[in-house]
Amino acid sequence: MPASPPPPDDAPSAAPAALWAGLARHRPPGADAADRAWRSPVRGPWLTSVLGAVLLATLPLVIVTGLLDWIAYGPRLDQAFPRDVGWLHPPVFDWPTRPAWLFRLTQGLHVALGIVLVPVVLGKLWSVVPKLFDWPPARSTAQLLERLSLVLLVGGILFQTATGLLNIQYAYLFGFDFYTAHWYGAWIFTAALVAHVAIKLPRLVTALRGPGFARTPVERTRPEPADPDGLVARRPGPATMSRRAVLAVVGGGALLLAALTVGQSVDALRRTALLLPRGRRIGDGPTGFPVNRSAAAAGVTPERTGPGWRLTLRAGNRTVALDRARLLALAQHTAVLPIACVEGWSTTQTWTGVRLRDLAALAGSADPATARVRSLERAGLFREAALHRGQVTDPDALLALRVNGVDLSLDHGYPARIIVPALPGVHCTKWVTEIVFDG
Q: In what residue span(s) does the Oxidoreductase molybdopterin-binding domain sit (predicted)?
């Protein structure tokens, strides 16, 4: 007697068949009401696929720039957060200093795209929300695994977006370390995204190749044909918006957020950055550009930066102490450089000071492998920073004493601060009191 053919991949096997059937018979309270509530005829594979294609084209850029920003913090110097990432440690390299706007680009894209994509993410979730109320939640083991990956995907993007937006505003309402949570959340989301794309990409391509629905006016808007994923409403009601209007609302929301965000990186539009209060101007004049951490917040007082302040340079057994007058008497170099912060804002200013490589030579280190910079700030994650050889020896890497032709203000790091091309802003240490050159 010939053997029976194997069941299709999505058919329930004999063993759990009773489980799926039992779940289907015992519907939870409210399941029928939820099923009747989702009646929009514009939902369907085409709309979901259009929004999914936008996310598929942009989310990898958010992921890659986030990983590059972690590398920019210097994992080789043990100062990237989180530090110990175990087997999730990617290949790393010494972050370059050229082009000088590199970190400004990667961090700006990471934050700006995270904000601009919020309406697209919400639109995509709206297009599939009826599936979240399906009962039973799965009808086979394969479908159950797919649904679990979807939970990780939806939860992951909502978690990453919410914590990222709160970090921009310094609103740490979540009670856990942002850097650690954002790092591991990104890996979970990325794995779920890869699994989801592998499962759904053929259907996305099929839906996009099929007849388009964007040109249909609202009075002729009809549901799409029933689909295997159940995205089309079972009991569709009359259309109140066309699919083109839905896409216009989503696109308009994204453009509005872009307009309110672009000022974070364009100095001339700084006052339009309404969603980024730390990225707006804090005053007029040469030092009227943003600061992320004020002297008051850092506990740095004018008394500690007054005439008694000294910069200590160390290299091996040699120690050199310089006051600000002696620093100003050394050869001065001027460079136009951007400074970019993790919250996404950046600005370009004209900095004047002493080259770090000249300070290294003065301390007796002709070719330092690293420089460890310490601040007058006594607490905080970034009161110290390490720079690798390329960052120390770059011709525009400075211990800045002046900005835009005037002395640094106290909030901008007076009496001296670090400025290095393409260096994350948190490592451009302010209120420098000591530099140790090693190697």
A: 302-437
364, containing H or E segment: none
* Residue of higher predicted confidence among 142 and 403: 403
What does the block give as tokens for 363?
A: 């301390």
Q: Which residue has the higher pLDDT, 395 or 31?
A: 395
Q: 348: closest CA among 100, 139, 84, 12?
A: 100
**432-438/311-315 β-pairing:** parallel
| Token digits of residue 406 | 């005037």
Which of 192, 48, 213 is closest to 120 using CA atoms? 48
Q: What is the DSSP string of 278-345?
A: GGS--SSSTT-S--SS-HHHHT--GGGGSTT--EEEEETTEEEEE-HHHHHHSPPEEEEEEEE-TTS-
pTM: 0.90
**Within 13 Å of residue 216, how many CA atoms lie on the same side as its CB?**
20
Q: Is cis: bond before 99, omega within 30 of 0?
A: yes
> What six digits make up the tokens of 250?
């989503």
* Superfamily of segment(s) 295-438: Oxidoreductase, molybdopterin-binding domain (3.90.420.10)
Q: Distance (Å, rounded) from C-alpha 310 to C-alpha 322?
A: 5
CA distance 185 to 154: 12
- Straight-line distance from the first to the last Cα atom of the chain, in angstroms, rounded to the nearest whole number: 80
Cα–Cα nearest to 431, from 286, 317, 324, 283: 324
Question: What confidence score (pLDDT) does residue 8 get?
Answer: 45
- Cβ(300)–Cβ(410) under 8 Å? yes
Tokens of 106: 């990667």
Q: Which amino acid is at 216?
A: T
327 in Cβ contact with 401 (< 8 Å): yes
Separation of alpha carbons 321 and 323, rounded Å: 7
HSE-CB at 143 with a 13 A cutoff on CA atoms is 17
In the chain, list all ranges with CATH 3.90.420.10: 295-438
Cα angle 271-343-262, degrees, rounded to a multiple of 5: 40
Q: List pLDDT tens digits, range 32-72.
A: 676 677 889 999 999 999 999 999 999 999 999 999 999 99
Q: How many Cβ atoms are within 10 Å of 330's Cβ, its own excluded?
A: 16
